[in-house]
Amino acid sequence: MGKLTWDAIPLHEPIPLITGAVVMLALLAVLALATLKGWWPCLWREWITSTDHKRIGVMYVLLAMVMLVRGFADALMMRSHLALAAGNARGYLPPPHFDQVFSAHGTIMIFFVGMAFMVGLMNFVVPLQIGARDVAFPVLNSVSFWLTAAGALLINVSLVVGEFARTGWLAYPPLSELAYSPGVGVDYWLWSLQIAGVGTLLSGINLVTTILKMRTPGMGYGRMPIFTWTALAANLLIIAAFPILTGSLAMLALDRYLGFHFFTNELGGNMMMYVNLIWAWGHPEVYILVLPAFGIYSEVIPTFAGKRLFGYRSMAAATMGICVVSFMVWLHHFFTMGAGADVNAFFGIATSVIAIPTGVKIFNWLFTMYGGTLRFELPLMWAIGFMLLFVIGGATGVLLAIPPADFQLHNSQFLVAHFHNVIIPGVLFGAFAGYNYWFPKAFGFRLHRGLGAASFWCWAIGFVLAFMPLYVLGLAGATRRMQHYPETQWQPLMVVALVGALALLVGIVLMVAQLAVSVRQRDRLRDTTGDPWDGRTLEWATPSPPPAWNFAALPQVDGIDAFWEAKRCNGGTLKLADGEGARPLHLPRPTPLGVVVAFFAFFAGFGAVWHLAWMACCALACIVAACLARAWRTELEVEIDPARIAAFERGARA
Amino acid sequence: MNAVAVAAVRDAEVPVSERGPSPRQVIVSYGFWLFLLSDIIVFSAFFAAYAVLAGRDAGGPGGSQLFHRGHVLAETGCLLFSSFACAMMSLAIGLRHRRLMVLGAVLTFALGAAFLGLELTEFGDMLARGATPVRSAFLSAFFALVGLHGLHVATGLAWLVVMMAQVFTLGWRPMVLGRLVCFSLFWHALDIVWIGVFTIVYLGAR
């Protein structure tokens, strides 16, 4: 059984054991409920095997929300521990456990919350915005999603079987080498990221092809909605950056499994090469997360200001500018490497340069709101919260970009405050704005406004309370990943940060309540128009929820904000492209390929973690077999009869 | 005017970016191009690692002691001619000529397998002389980079066999033809990577 023994179950550690038990009970309860209610056939047919980009997008977002709860539980443990562990007090998390908690927190929040949320929203929205019937490769899309889910499962299994990495979310060698991390923690990290990373790469290829090759007639580059522009930039970055992650993880795996010397201390290995490679992926990754969020704000703000976006062209140019420059700044994550003044100056200046296109965006949003008729619906609240809080994070980022300042602030709580300040108000607020904005499109009813607003205020205030103290603590000398501190004068600020984390907890609880209450009151919140916010882009021209084929006939687009123009000039009816009319459409059949591949990928990963070569090899062979079986399937599409489409269209209009 | 002429006039006036969704085959090839680019970036990470570690032989054998240029030249010849055969195969597919296609495929496979055989002989020889990947960072980077390329070649050979089976069981369907195009793109991309390996690893050996 390789390294796997009964000792892998942490029977002596109550926290992971109880958490694991609760999670498993919850999971069993959900499975039992689905079985009792007879939901399985429907779940299997309509969701698990679905190749519909809208369903897959919804599943990504659901995965992100579940993982947000997991990642936040880690955060709450760290904050409560640090509120206690001052002076002679030791807190309640021993160092090896604390190290696992912060490593898991970072890994989960970036890969399975931020990425899953953004990829989910892009999946759902982009084909609708460009007037496409699906993504370019719908089956591959299902494979991508399920691989991400398999990676998420693997990382969570580490909670109850074995341990997780104690190396931080990027597992720097030599600490992550076998000599210093002999356990399976780093291997869990490696394989869950490798599996999820392949899923993300495939989804990036899919969305770029979709955007570049499947736009409806008339939608030239200068007419694409800004969210589609940012999705294009983010997915180009995925294609260019994720292979570097794949390569670096493979090298670390070769070091750990076969005794190679890429990053070891001895026989010529070079650990700084790992740090360079991982950040050559890691910095573009930050923009992969934040660019789609910028796109969401660029959709939300014009809609709720009732005005066309100010500076469309400069917005697209700024997006592509950030896309390019994001590859030239990676070294600012380790100015202290000692590359010399010239190199550090180059990267410091390149980093500061990123503030220019970002500033252009902020001003464009402000000028869009200026003179508009603002409607303070939930998406706009998140967007304004973003603008107020994100600029603080941007400013501290420029501060950190100055190498001499960075030498003082490197790996301090100041840095922790900075990147949470860009990721929470930047990425997460954007994700929540998008969630509230497009939810009625996905399900046909709005989310509850009062609970949503309460959740927003908890998030905004909780964020300020949780992270502003960390700036002060960082300047006072508190380091990152610190498990205990002797200076009792830091404790009051640590307690304030804990209060902030508790406010964020209330925000999350309210968000769950918002969803539950909205589902119960769906008849009251129902939107029958398909256009609840008076939207501007093509997705609002479809019924809510849109049919499997999105558009019965492809629209002809003549400018930006195509649907807004149609409402202004033509009573909301889109002009149809030449040759579009009643004819049968072909949609891909549902296929279990994605879930089957991911099922075996999980076991391949689990086998690799525990050195169960037989399990890993069998699982890989099964993946190959599943793909080969698929390659001989010829009935790949179902035809949708024009009568059914016409009946649906009449129903939607009535 | 007939419909074709109307379409021609329209296409002349409408910019490429506004002509609507591309045909399926274009979409498939385009997606595969993007995949190849991302694969080349994986290689570039290994090239970068090799460039950093090339001199770090930790007192072990260096490249100039281990590599035989004649041997590598023969390997290169096999791979490039295999690509030539693959191009011939594509022409035969264009003519829907099954026997010529099989001839091209057999040549492609045989030359690719010969490349792989030569590479494995080289690896075996190095391992026998104690130049294993655990000996030094230079050898780790060498085996990982060249081995990754070899792994791609092996995958390509398996794919070629599968494609021949597809042609014989499914016939010339658009689905199969699309996969054949992707295979040939893949096979040529491996050549491009090999040119990098040949130049940087073997000609640049210290």
Describe this structure in words.
The complex is a heterodimer of chains A (654) and B (206). Chain A has 654 residues and is an all-alpha fold. Chain A has a single domain (6-653), classed as Cytochrome C Oxidase, Chain A (Up-down Bundle). Chain A has 20 helices and 2 strands. Chain A has helices at 14-36, 40-48, 53-84, 95-129, 138-157, 185-213, 226-258, 271-305, 312-325, 341-369, 378-400, 403-409, 413-443, 449-475, 491-520, 522-525, 562-570, 593-609, 613-631, 642-653, and strands at 585-588, 637-640. Chain A has a two-stranded antiparallel sheet with strand order 1-2. In chain A, helix 4 (95-129) packs across helix 8 (271-305), helix 4 (95-129) packs parallel to helix 13 and helix 14 packs antiparallel against helix 15. The longest helix of chain A is centred in the first third of the chain and has 35 residues, at 95-129. By secondary structure, chain B is mostly helical. Chain B has one domain: Cytochrome c oxidase, subunit III, four-helix bundle (Four Helix Bundle (Hemerythrin (Met), subunit A), Up-down Bundle), CATH 1.20.120.80. In chain B, 81% of the residues lie in helices and 0% in strands. Chain B is built from 7 helices and no strands. In chain B, helix 4 runs antiparallel to helix 7 (174-203) and helix 6 packs antiparallel against helix 7 (174-203). Chain B starts with a helix and ends with a helix.
How do the strands and helices of this protein lay out in sequence?
The complex is a heterodimer of chains A (654) and B (206).
Chain A (H helix, E strand, L loop, with lengths): L13 H23 L3 H9 L4 H32 L10 H35 L8 H20 L27 H29 L12 H33 L12 H35 L6 H14 L15 H29 L8 H23 L2 H7 L3 H31 L5 H27 L15 H30 L1 H4 L36 H9 L14 E4 L4 H17 L3 H19 L5 E4 L1 H12 L1
Helix pairs in contact in A: 3-4, 3-5, 3-15, 4-5, 4-6, 4-8, 4-13, 5-6, 5-18, 6-7, 6-18, 7-8, 7-9, 8-10, 8-13, 9-10, 10-11, 11-13, 11-14, 13-14, 14-15, 18-19
Chain B lengths: L2 H11 L10 H30 L9 H4 L2 H26 L3 H31 L8 H34 L3 H30 L3
